[in-house]
Design brief:
Elements: E1 2-7, E2 10-12, H1 19-37, H2 41-46, H3 50-56, H4 61-64, H5 72-93, H6 95-116, H7 128-141, E3 146-149, E4 153-156, H8 157-172, H9 179-196, H10 201-232
Antiparallel strand pairs: 1-2, 1-3, 3-4
Length: 238
């Protein structure tokens, strides 16, 4: 996917790497290289495993999963999209707000994954949730700029965002296990949109935390009820 926009009569491609984007790329690449020397268990400890977030309160996974990637192409295209779409946002918003928004989208995407797939033991990794949030913001700020889909088909950013959001939505509704990643993508877009529309994100996070606690408590009650059934031989309804 390549990207361009017109400024007057000139044609531009990309832009210099801005400070926060540079640091994010370095951080992602550094962690990606670390994965080669670490045990595969790092994926299950720092990747996002919804079941472990609820059962063991591994809340750090909501933050750390974004820095892990599944392969060279995975990290390459995520970092390419970050550079392509994030530079203008950082220059307009400032580095501090851009970083806050980026991390919020990543964590928000992780929360959506945990809420909708609370029993999943498949780890979710990658910066795609944050990248989709960046894409949403870019589409809201520059709806008529053009991107080339598959390097061939020109499409306005606003239509591209709708297309990517629709794909994530319908894919997440499918029965395939790949729906985990699509829910993460969709979650990043949703949280980005709500934040830019001045929704109370702190309240959303608080409600999400309460739901996570509810799922964990519900699971404990189920375990206790099974033990009671075995010991007392009586039916238990919860």
């Amino acid at each position: 996917m390549s990207y361009y926009y017109r400024s007057g009569s000139s044609l531009s491609f990309g832009f210099p790497v801005t400070p926060v984007i540079k640091k994010l790329i370095i951080a992602n690449v550094a962690v990606f290289l670390l994965q080669f020397f670490a045990s595969y268990k790092i994926i299950y400890f720092f990747g996002l495993v919804p079941y472990m977030v609820i059962r063991e309160f591994y809340f750090w996974q909501l933050f750390t999963y974004q820095f892990l990637h599944g392969g060279l192409f995975h990290i390459f295209f995520n970092m390419l999209a970050l550079w392509m779409f994030g530079g203008d946002l950082e220059r307009i918003w400032g580095s501090a707000f851009f970083l806050k928004y980026y991390l919020l989208c990543a964590v928000g995407a992780g929360i959506c994954t945990v809420i909708f797939l609370p029993t999943s033991i498949s780890p979710t990794i990658g910066a795609s949730g944050a990248i989709y949030g960046i894409l949403m913001a870019y589409g809201m700020l520059f709806p008529d700029r053009m991107v080339y889909l598959y390097f061939l088909f020109p499409i306005k950013v606003k239509h591209f965002v709708i297309l990517m959001g629709s794909v994530a939505l319908f894919s997440s509704m499918s029965a395939s296990g790949n729906g985990i990643a699509h829910i993460t993508h969709l979650g990043g877009m949703i949280f980005g949109y709500l934040y830019l529309k001045n929704w109370d994100i702190k309240e959303i996070f608080r409600q999400a935390y309460l739901k996570l606690k509810y799922h964990r408590l519900k699971r404990k009650l189920r375990v206790i009820s099974k033990d009671d059934d075995q010991n007392n031989d009586k039916p238990y309804y919860h």
